[in-house]
Design goal:
Elements: E1 2-6, E2 9-12, E3 17-24, E4 31-38, E5 45-50, E6 57-59, E7 67-72, E8 77-82, E9 91-99, E10 107-108, E11 112-117
Parallel strand pairs: 2-11
Antiparallel strand pairs: 1-3, 3-8, 4-5, 4-9, 5-6, 7-8, 9-10, 9-11
């Protein structure tokens, strides 16, 4: 599975961005996708993803109510809509994929930079 993330950029605090992640290769209905981020000097952290059933979503507490993950199965693409952005959301955002029977994400995209100016 290959993942290609896009949509990052520079935005003012309070603004919005939508990230996209296109999957290709041996994708299947068994694959679940999610988003992570890594800020400078910090460890990578989970942001949002789809649960094992493929329909339910779950989020890190720090983005609940502000970010929304969605997907377009026909395009093999997952989106991360980010609203009410804060300076602390500045990070490189990565999309990742796992199989529904495991919690481990095994496929990773190249990352897209999101910078929120205050």
């Amino acid at each position: 599975v290959q993942l290609q993330a896009s949509g990052g950029g520079l935005v003012q605090a309070g603004g919005s961005l939508r990230l996209s992640c296109a999957a290709s290769g041996r994708t299947s209905s068994s694959v679940r996708m999610g988003w992570f981020r890594q800020a400078p000097g910090k460890e990578r952290e989970f942001v949002a993803g789809f649960r094992w059933n493929g329909d339910s979503t779950y989020y890190a507490d720090f983005v609940k109510g502000r970010f929304s993950i969605s997907r377009d199965n026909a395009k093999n693409t997952v989106y991360l809509q980010m609203d009410s952005l804060k300076s602390e959301d500045t990070a490189v955002y990565y999309c990742a994929a796992r199989y529904h029977w495991t919690a481990e994400y095994v496929y990773w995209g190249q990352g897209t930079q999101v910078t929120v100016s205050s």
